[in-house]
């Protein structure tokens, strides 16, 4: 019997679990219970922890389509690089100091990438647009929503997409060279992400693309790319640097026309008071 060798290791185990020998199932159970830490386990450690022989673990790896434990660790690291939550389950599992070091490294990399003036170019594009649409999918949506909230205070006509119950196409229809789209797309992007970008390029819509370093970058001259690392010592990606970028971009848009921006902020603040919306 050979378990399925397609998909990630969980899929491979699930597809052939019933045909594994009892000892192999014990090792497979341990792997399924420790997927978050799989990138650091050796075959000996898996064997000891699951109470089976190292030969059993090695045989299981081969059934799953892996050459050895190193191949499995590389597979786990590959999943993590794509944004799959494989890694320590506790934010403090690598130590709070290590967590802080990675967050600082993300911010350092973000700021280093903005040193060539691309932030100011993106801000000028957004500030001059007739209408701005901020688009974010899946885990990118909260960052897009926060950015839209900040930009809406700096300038009028800023929309979010997709809105609940709405397709993205409804927001893209009618956009053109006088408009701008901020497209936020961190790893584990949906399958249609590239299609959205291609559609915007076909409509000659200027785009500010906010992505992680692993993204495939477009060649269109009308696209400004802001690269934001999302690395983390924990199982899930960190968006601390992404939120910082949202702050920087909104502030830079405000700085393009500070008088008009402050007048808009003043009007919004006055309405908050008039409507009793804030404490």
Describe the structure.
Strand 3, helix 10 and strand 4 form a beta-alpha-beta unit. Helix 6 runs parallel beside helix 11. The protein is 52% helix and 9% strand. The radius of gyration is 24 Å and the shape is elongated. The N and C termini lie far apart (66 Å). With 279 residues, it is α/β, with parallel strands linked by helices. The protein folds into 2 domains: 73 residues, Orthogonal Bundle (Arc Repressor Mutant, subunit A), CATH 1.10.10.10; 173 residues, Rossmann fold. It has 12 helices and 5 strands. A 5-stranded parallel sheet has the order 2-1-3-4-5, with helices on both faces. Pfam families: HTH_6 (PF01418). This is MurR/RpiR family transcriptional regulator.
Which tags fit this structure?
alpha/beta, Arc Repressor Mutant, subunit A, 9% strand, elongated
Explain briefly what this protein structure is.
The protein is of the alpha/beta class. It has helices at 9-16, 22-33, 43-50, 54-63, 69-81, 96-113, 118-128, 141-154, 168-172, 193-202, 240-256, 258-275; strands at 132-136, 158-161, 180-185, 207-211, 223-227.
N-to-C order of helices and strands: HHHHHHHEHEHEHEEHH
The CA-CA distance between the termini, in Å, is 66 Å
* Biggest sheet character: 5 strands, parallel
Helicity, in percent? 40-55%
Examine the secondary-structure arrangement and name the CATH architecture of the largest domain: 3-Layer(aba) Sandwich
What does the radius of gyration come to?
A: 24 Å
CATH superfamily of the largest domain: Glucose-6-phosphate isomerase like protein, domain 1
Instruction: Provide the structure class.
Output: alpha/beta
């Amino acid at each position: 019997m050979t378990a399925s060798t397609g998909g990630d290791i969980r899929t491979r185990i699930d597809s052939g679990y019933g045909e594994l020998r009892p000892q192999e199932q014990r090792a497979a159970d341990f792997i399924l219970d420790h997927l978050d830490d799989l990138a650091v386990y050796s075959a000996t450690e898996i064997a000891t922890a699951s109470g089976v022989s190292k030969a059993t673990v090695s045989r299981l790896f081969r059934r799953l389509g892996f050459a050895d434990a190193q191949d499995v660790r590389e597979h786990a690291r590959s999943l993590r690089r794509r944004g799959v939550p494989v890694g320590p389950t506790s934010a403090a599992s690598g130590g709070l100091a290590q967590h802080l070091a990675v967050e600082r490294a993300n911010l350092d990399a973000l700021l280093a990438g903005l040193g060539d003036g691309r932030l100011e170019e993106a801000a000028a594009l957004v500030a001059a647009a007739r209408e701005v649409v901020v688009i974010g999918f899946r885990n990118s949506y909260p960052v897009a929503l926060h950015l839209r909230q900040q930009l809406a205070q700096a300038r009028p006509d800023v929309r979010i997409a997709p809105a609940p119950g709405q397709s993205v196409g409804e927001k893209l229809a009618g956009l053109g060279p006088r408009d701008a789209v901020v497209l936020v797309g961190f790893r584990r992007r949906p399958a249609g992400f590239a299609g959205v970008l291609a559609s915007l390029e076909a409509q000659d819509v200027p785009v500010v693309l906010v992505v992680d370093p692993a993204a495939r970058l477009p060649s269109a001259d009308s696209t400004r790319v802001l690269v934001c690392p999302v690395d983390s010592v924990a199982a899930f990606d960190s968006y601390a640097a992404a939120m910082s970028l949202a702050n920087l971009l909104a502030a830079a848009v405000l700085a393009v026309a500070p008088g008009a921006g402050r007048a808009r902020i003043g009007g919004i603040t006055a309405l908050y008071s008039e409507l009793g919306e804030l404490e």
